């Protein structure tokens, strides 16, 4: 390799290392881009009705914040009330179980008595773990503050991108060579369209899962069914892990009514998750963004491994964008051109050779491969 090639390789390695160190910031920027793309589509819908750009953007942002505030207003109060009741009911439940076990000790052989669990001893063993959790509360608060700051950063960047999207797109395009900028413009348009389709598909999946959860919990007679249904729909944005997390508060609230309801809720959420993972999301996403189910699952494993929880949350939109860039740049602009040049090298070409008498004759020469 020549000196210039070595310098280019070293610069590429250094650039990749810097990007890797800034991966969390880049993910936050990407989250802002996704949110800005969603609100921009809503703003364009308002513009099509005759609104000016500024009013359309303001109305879109207002609807977004109204939805966020409404979500927390609907979820937090009933969960707070149910949690307070749960802290009172759970110790009472333990006492009832302990009393029942004591009663059963008189009806079983003495040889089996040592194998019967003692609730009080179990609580004593759990107590140090509980104290350790309380001792780490400061770290939890610190992590919560970091999350809040990250959310504020995403919201601020979203507002900036939404105010003047063309200017930021032009800055990004100028990072590429001049002969390739028009091509990058077309790729960015495809990314925007695909992200809008993904948002539509995700909204449909969230709506279906939320309605199914609300209907099932209402049939079972679980308290706060509306709040739990909304939470289940929202948690569906987190693939695979979200539905599992949403079943915990539902089972806890169901425990306040009767011992069998948590089991029924678990069965209900299991069937909803199976329907969501095997039918709803694959069909909707395949129709909206043409993602195969296996590709979706592999992308989730990849991004959660390298980027953590935020990568899991953004796995699908990241896959949508990555698919377009790989297909357009790597496949069409590199591999297809490479194949075309390789075919040309192996075709018969006509060349002219000078003869001894000065005449020109055409000779067919087959280009040989390097190997």
Automatic annotation (TrEMBL):
Q: Which GO terms describe its biological process?
A: transmembrane transport
**Mind listing the UniProt keywords for this protein, alphabetically?**
Membrane, Transmembrane, Transmembrane helix
Pfam families, from UniProt? Answer: AI-2E_transport
TM segment ranges: 5-20, 26-43, 55-76, 138-163, 292-316
In the UniProt record, which is one GO cellular component term?
membrane
Topology in the lipid bilayer is annotated as: Multi-pass membrane protein
Alphabetical list of InterPro entries matching this protein: AI-2E-like (IPR002549)
Q: What is the annotated localization of this protein?
A: Membrane
Q: Family, per the entry?
A: Belongs to the autoinducer-2 exporter (AI-2E) (TC 2.A.86) family.
What protein name applies here?
AI-2E family transporter
């Amino acid at each position: 390799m020549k000196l210039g090639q070595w310098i280019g390789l070293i610069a590429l390695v250094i650039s990749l290392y810097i990007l890797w160190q800034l991966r969390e910031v880049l993910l936050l920027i990407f989250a802002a881009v996704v949110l800005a793309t969603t609100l921009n589509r809503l703003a364009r819908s308002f513009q099509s009705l005759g609104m000016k750009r500024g009013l359309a953007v303001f109305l879109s942002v207002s609807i977004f914040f109204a939805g966020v505030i409404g979500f927390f207003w609907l979820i937090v109060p009933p969960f707070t009330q149910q949690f307070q009741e749960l802290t009172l009911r759970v110790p009472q439940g333990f006492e009832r179980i302990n009393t029942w076990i004591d009663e059963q000790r008189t009806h079983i052989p003495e040889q089996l008595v040592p194998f019967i669990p003692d609730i009080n001893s179990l609580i004593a063993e759990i107590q140090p773990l509980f104290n350790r959790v309380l001792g780490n509360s400061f770290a939890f608060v610190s992590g919560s503050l970091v999350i809040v700051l990250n959310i504020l950063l995403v919201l601020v960047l979203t507002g900036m991108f939404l105010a003047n999207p063309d200017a930021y797109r032009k800055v990004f395009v100028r990072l590429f060579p001049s002969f390739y900028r028009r091509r990058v413009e077309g790729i960015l348009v495809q990314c925007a369209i695909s992200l809008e389709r993904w948002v539509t598909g995700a909204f449909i999946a969230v709506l279906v899962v939320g309605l199914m959860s609300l209907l099932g919990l209402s049939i079972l007679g679980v308290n706060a069914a509306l709040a739990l249904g909304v939470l289940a729909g929202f948690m569906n944005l987190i693939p695979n892990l979200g539905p599992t997390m949403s079943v915990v508060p539902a089972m806890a609230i169901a425990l306040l009514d009767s011992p069998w309801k948590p089991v029924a809720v678990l069965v209900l959420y299991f069937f909803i998750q199976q329907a969501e993972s095997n039918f709803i999301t694959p069909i909707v996403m395949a129709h909206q963004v043409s993602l195969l189910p296996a590709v979706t699952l592999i992308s989730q494993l990849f991004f959660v491994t390298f980027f953590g929880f935020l990568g899991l949350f953004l796995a699908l939109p990241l896959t949508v964008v990555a698919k377009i860039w790989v297909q357009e740049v790597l496949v069409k602009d590199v591999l297809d051109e490479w194949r075309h040049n390789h075919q040309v090298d192996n075709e018969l070409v006509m060349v002219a050779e000078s003869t001894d008498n000065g005449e020109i004759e055409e000779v067919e020469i087959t280009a040989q491969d390097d190997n």
